[in-house]
Amino acid sequence: MDITPSTRGSACLDKCVPSLEKRPVRAAVCALTSACLPWLESLGISLPPELREALAESDGAVGEHGLGLFWPSERIAEDNLTFRSNPDFRHLYVPFDPLLFCADAFNGDQFAYSICGGVISRADIFVWNHEDDSRTWVAPFLTRYFEWWTSGELKV
Hints:
This protein has 156 residues and is an alpha+beta fold. Helix content is 38%, strand content 17%. It has a single domain, classed as SMI1/KNR4-like (3-Layer(aba) Sandwich), CATH 3.40.1580.10.
């Protein structure tokens, strides 16, 4: 499957985060099809269009000073599987099934989409606090999260 970044996605990443260090999208086997999508589809989860476009353009991205904006698709799949299957987490935290983690704040907190009934129907981004297990709204959509996180307006 050939995945080509959309003009909107490309312009969005470049405009929102001019100092962005993009990770290359694997040409032969796109991570979207090899790692992330089959796993998500097995759970009945479909990637939000904005995240799908961002991953098609850059398989993860790091901003200024090494600030991670969103994970490579392989990490999205692996971390979400780990959070859902770790037996210790079942005793420590509220279930992670209603979240799709896609980035972290380098302090243990994770950024995520909300899943309701197996569907990501809202573009909103939430942060999960690893210390108190709270889930808090932080941005109305991915590009605003990029803007706020890289500008320092969003703090966790």
